[in-house]
Design brief:
The protein has a domain at 380-431: Archaeosine Trna-guanine Transglycosylase, Chain: A, domain 4 (Roll), CATH 2.30.130.10. It is globular. The strands form 3 sheets. Strands 5, 6, 7, 8, 9, 10, 11, 12, 13 and 14 form a 10-stranded mixed β-sheet that branches. The chain has a 4-stranded antiparallel β-sheet with strand order 2-3-1-4. A 4-stranded mixed β-sheet has the order 15-16-17-18. With 451 residues, it is of the alpha/beta class. It is 28% helix and 21% strand. It contains 14 helices and 18 strands.
């Protein structure tokens, strides 16, 4: 890999030489491929074709020996699994440390409501697109918890809404807003979030192996620009976190300006305690990599040491005495709900079978529908693998003669794909046009064949 000319020298000003060499060697190795199961759709024992072991810090995560043609698999479109980078799945381990009273067994890992010690009623994924961490959050948070998944950039928000609709859960609200707009809305409602994930935009050093553009755009000036943006985002959303609540700060980069230094800034300037997270030494996760300061609890994933891409995470708890939020403390018991964002959102839920491009304005931001694949009470019809792909290409189908007329939900291997309107002689395809498989030449395949 042709790293930026200044990059190694930049890291050597902050890291030990042996750590820099480990990273440089790791960046020369090929990237890994991994998926994460949806525990509401597949059993914990499910093993895909080409499986190559479980992700140590996230048992739902599975490494694959090679990258298949994911687009050709109806189960991906059904939300049975998500293609996610393994290092970022560390979020699952952090959540389990917060949520569970003890270390759960492999079976209980797929039962997020069992033994809950941190009572979280509402959570926010602030920079959520394309949805990997939001789907992970939704799988582990208690069913009654409201998850707000937000993405300020419109086209990315559309992708986020699509992925969360496929993952499937009623207690999700997808919004398109800036951090300050959300904080202002929360302040007006006199409540706050229990948990906020800020996977902030970064310089992308951790994606050098997968994204050549990240290598081309890197410079010390770009790092400084990203670090300032990250502080601004966290500062804007900070009023929306209740005193005593948790903020998870993460990036896909390595440098201390965007990582350790920003975590220290949040703790000192906004009022928070940086918390340690117990880990297994065999996972080879590194802590604070700087050589010149007192270390802070944090977690670095370095290619070459872990089987995954670059990732950084720190867990912070907001101080109860934070002066910025005294006005919220009195009313912090008021739980958020989908309805609390706007009574008009309930109308949105009923009418959101129209095109996903129709975002609905609420206050100063928008919500996007996530129920376009579901209609309670309609009959279900099982499709073959070729017909399932044809459905996802948004073709019309002829369903079995015994299929009831009207709206039906079509499935593949028991997993719902979406809706059709069965007219008898043919069935009109109601799959969202924006989500269709655009390629007309695709060889249908699935990672989880029944035979």
């Amino acid at each position: 890999m042709n790293l930026p000319k200044e990059y190694k020298d930049y890291l050597l000003r902050h890291w030990k030489q042996e750590d820099v060499e480990v990273l440089v060697r790791g960046l020369e190795a090929p990237p890994t491929v991994s998926i994460r199961l949806n525990p509401n759709r597949l059993p914990p024992s499910a093993e895909p074709t080409g499986a190559d072991g479980r992700v140590p810090w996230c048992p739902e995560g599975i490494y694959l020996k090679e990258r298949p043609a994911f687009t050709a698999d109806p189960l991906l479109h059904a939300g049975a699994y998500y293609v996610q980078e393994a290092s970022s799945m560390f979020l699952a381990h952090v959540l389990r440390q917060l949520l569970f009273q003890d270390s759960p067994s492999i079976e209980r890992l797929f039962e997020p409501s069992a033994g809950c010690k941190f009572q979280v009623e509402n959570a926010l994924d602030l920079c959520a697109a394309p949805g990997g961490k939001s789907t992970l959050l939704r799988s582990l948070l208690p069913d009654g918890c409201l998850l707000v998944a937000n993405e300020p950039i419109r086209n990315r928000a559309q992708v986020l809404a699509e992925n969360l609709a496929k993952w499937g859960h009623p207690n999700i609200l997808v919004t398109q807003a800036k951090a300050a707009e959300i904080a202002n809305f929360i302040k007006q409602k006199g409540t706050a979030f229990d948990l906020i994930l800020t996977d902030v935009p970064c310089s992308g050093e951790g994606m050098f192996r997968k994204e050549p553009e990240a290598v081309r755009q890197w410079s010390p000036a770009f790092v400084a620009e990203c670090a300032a943006l990250q502080r601004s985002i966290v500062q804007d959303i900070w009023p929306a976190l209740r005193p005593g609540g948790y903020l998870i700060y993460s990036t896909c980069t390595f440098n201390p300006e965007e990582d350790e230094q920003n975590v220290e800034w949040i703790a000192h300037e906004l009022g928070a305690t940086v918390l340690p997270v117990p880990t297994d030494p065999t996972w080879n996760i590194r802590g604070d990599l700087r050589t010149t300061t007192s270390p802070v609890p944090c977690y670095h994933f370095l290619p070459g040491l872990v089987r995954g891409e670059g990732f950084f995470l720190a867990l912070l708890q907001k101080d109860d005495s934070s002066k910025t939020h005294q006005k919220l403390i009195k009313n912090s018991k008021n739980a958020l709900s989908i309805g609390s964002f706007s009574t008009t959102h309930q109308k949105l839920i009923k009418n959101s079978s129209k095109a996903t491009k129709n975002a609905h304005s609420i206050e100063t931001f928008s919500t996007l529908p996530t129920n376009l694949l579901d209609e309670p009470g309609v009959p279900q019809v099982e499709l073959s693998l070729p017909d399932a792909v044809r459905y996802l290409q948004r073709e019309s189908l002829v369903l079995p003669s015994e299929t009831p007329r009207g709206h039906v939900q079509v499935c593949f291997l028991g997993q719902r794909l979406g809706l059709m309107n069965n007219l008898g002689s043919r069935a009109n395809n109601l799959y969202p046009k924006e989500w269709r498989i655009r390629s007309g030449h695709i060889e249908a395949a699935t990672l989880f064949p029944t035979e």
